[in-house]
Amino acid sequence: MYMRIKKPAIFLLTCxxxxxxxxxxxxxxxxxxxxxxxxxxxxxGPPAGVGVDRGINTSSDRSxxxxxxxxxxxxxxxxxxxxxGLDRARLQxxxxxxxxxxxxxxxxxxxxxxxxxxxxxxxxxxxLLTNPSLKFGQYVAATRLAAHLGQSFPNITRTAxxxxxxxxxxxxQTLQDLGLSKQQEKDAQKRAEREIKEAKxx
Length: 202
Description:
It is built from 10 helices and no strands. The longest helix is centred in the first third of the chain and has 31 residues. The chain is elongated. About 14% of the residues have low confidence.
C-alpha cells in the first residue's frame, strides 16, 4: 500500500518540477529578447546604429539634424575663432608644403646661403606658428638681412624682422622702423635678393 502511494507522489512531484523549470527558462528568454523588434526575437547581432552607420556622415540623420546644428553654431559661439583656427592651420600647411617644394627644386640653395635645408625648414615652420601668412621667400630674406646687418645694427635680427612682418609691416618698412634709412634699406634688400637668386641657380 505504501509503495502504491509513493509512486504517484513521485510522478506528480517530477511533473511539478518540469513545469517550474520550463517557466523559468521561458521567462529568461523573454527577458533577453525584450527589446527585439517584432519578427526578430532571439536574433543576435549588433544593435541598430553599430557598424557603418556610426560614421560622422550619418550623424545628422540619426540626430534629426541636431549634429549639423551643433557644428553650425560652433563658429557663432566662438565668435568665429573655430573657423579662424582652421584657416590658420590650412595656411600653415600650404606654406610649409611650398617651402618643401622649393627646397627640393633648389637643393643647393641652402648651402649657398651658408645654412642647410633642415635648419631653413625647421626655422620657417616655427615662424609659421606665429605668422601663418609668412612666405618662405620672406623668411629666407629676413635670414640673409639679419646676417648682413646684424653687426652694424644689433637690433636688426631675424626675429625682429619677422615680428614686423607679423604685425603687417613690409620688410622695407620694418628695416626703417629698426633704424635704417630708406636708401640703406633698399641697398640691403637688393643685396639679399641678389644672393637668393644666385643661390637658386645652383
